[in-house]
Every structure is written in structure tokens, then in C-alpha cells.
Amino acid sequence: MTTTVFTSNLESNSFSTSRKLFNHDIFQVEVYGEDNESMTFEVMADSMAAATAEAERMAMENMIDIQYINVTAM
User: Three-state SS for 9?
Assistant: First the structure.
């Protein structure tokens, strides 16, 4: 299982300030393979389609035959 975590150390505690630094949204992606394999991770992307493409790339790197992908906006 792969988990990616992004941490920001900003002087301001304002969420809107940190959102201006990252022009991407954060998505939780779950990839399920045909052989009961699964990966769950978070990815920063412009859209759900871009997050799905990143999930497909990571699944191919780990040689997982994709059965389905679940993408959730965070």
C-alpha cells in the first residue's frame, strides 16, 4: 500500500492562504486489482480525471491489473 502525505509549514493558520499556494485539489484514490490487490493514496491534481490518470500510472508501475478505481474529492 502506498500513502502520500503533503505537509505545509506556513506562518499563517489560514486555510485560504495555503490553498492559494497549491492550485490543485486533493483527491483520495483507491485502486482495486483483479487479484485482491489494492492501493490507497492521496494525490494533488487539477481534476478527478487527472487524479484517475495518476492512479492508473501508479497501478501500472506496481503491475496491478485494475478492476476499478474509486476517486474521492477531499
Answer: coil
